[in-house]
Amino acid sequence: MSEDPDTKSADGSEAIEREIRTTRKFSLNDAIGQLAGGDFMKGGSPVTRKRQAELEIEEYLRRHLVDSGGGLRSVLLRQLGESLLNGDYGQPLAVLAEYSRRILASDYLLQEVVREADTEWGRAHDERPYFQEPNRPPHCDDPYTIDSVRLALVQLCDRLADVPSGGLQRSRDGDFPSP
Amino acid sequence: MRLLVLTLGMLSLASPASAQWSAAVFLGNAATSPVRLTIASPDASLVIEPVELRDESSSSPWYYGGRVTRTFARARWLGVEAEFIHAKAISDASQLVRVEGRLHDVAIDGQRPLGSVLPRFELSHGLNFVLANIAVFWPLHSARPDPPIVLVARFGAGPTVPHVEAVFDGQSEHRYQLGGAAVGGTVGAQIRLLSRVAAVIEFKATRTAQHVDVGTARLEGLFATRHAIVGVAWSITS
After folding, report:
1. Hey, of A68, A114, A120, A154, which one would you mutate to test binding to chain B, going by the most B CBs within 10 A of its CB?
2. Buried-most residue among A30, A42, B197, B198 (CB within 10 A)?
3. What is the pLDDT of residue B228?
């Protein structure tokens, strides 16, 4: 009767492992790796679910938010990253849609987002930021005005509304931070 | 470019004994007509118009220029010149413009603030012209050896060297580039103040098809600029 090939293969692997261990010094890192590393990563992703959700939002914003300066995108990503700590990782675009609607529904939140986008722009491009005062015309060199950010978010919401409904289930209340 | 080569050739071929040299420096004010900008990059294809541009001629760095002129004993009415002009063109990010095209996956067609698609676009150091001119001089009192007023017309062409300060799609640009070719025409007058010193008053019009790079994007537009100039000219040799 022939020998089971699986058993033969396992014996071969153990022999190779023994040979490797004879030439290696013992270290605590190795020991922890051997204990935890066996089945620890099997079937999983080394990227956390939160990070996956952030990357999905980041990619969506990069492709669908009209924000050539990049400041508004950074602000939304930062705010949404905080919200995702307690949020539903499975529906990141729903979190984004709800958060955008919430900003548009509040003049105060919109002004704060504009202010943060201006700050982010100034930091990223080493430029002096200009902050638009409520009910005042913007400075001529201000790339983020209340109107321009409102328009960008309205168009973002319109595009998110075109996403198939399965990808936009409403997330739980309380998932969104105040900017 | 051909005109530049021709001008340099004429300058070098002219005999020193027959030539008269003069130099001029000037300040002025420039106004550029609204521009239709096209932007092409791997991720974008946009047409933006009309983009209005400020000149800020009187704020640092000021509008300025200078030129060297060579005329000839056998044809004192004709001169060849090398001229440099520093003008500026600066866009307002908050102005409303019509935008048509695509930015990443977003189709855009409508009015919106320029800053949402082109947050910064400045040629503030500046829109620099390097022109080779042919000039024609017309003394008003030609019988006098030193006519008090000389009318001048000149036509020139040459490269531009814009200093591009721009941000598009997260990419920044802040450097001198070799821009498009420019042509310019001038009418004006030289008013004699002293034996070798004259005041210069001119109106100039230039056109240049600019193409500048902002990261991976290329911006193109036709810049038509009107210049009003006052300055001083010195006759270096008699």
Report:
1. A68
2. B198
3. 97
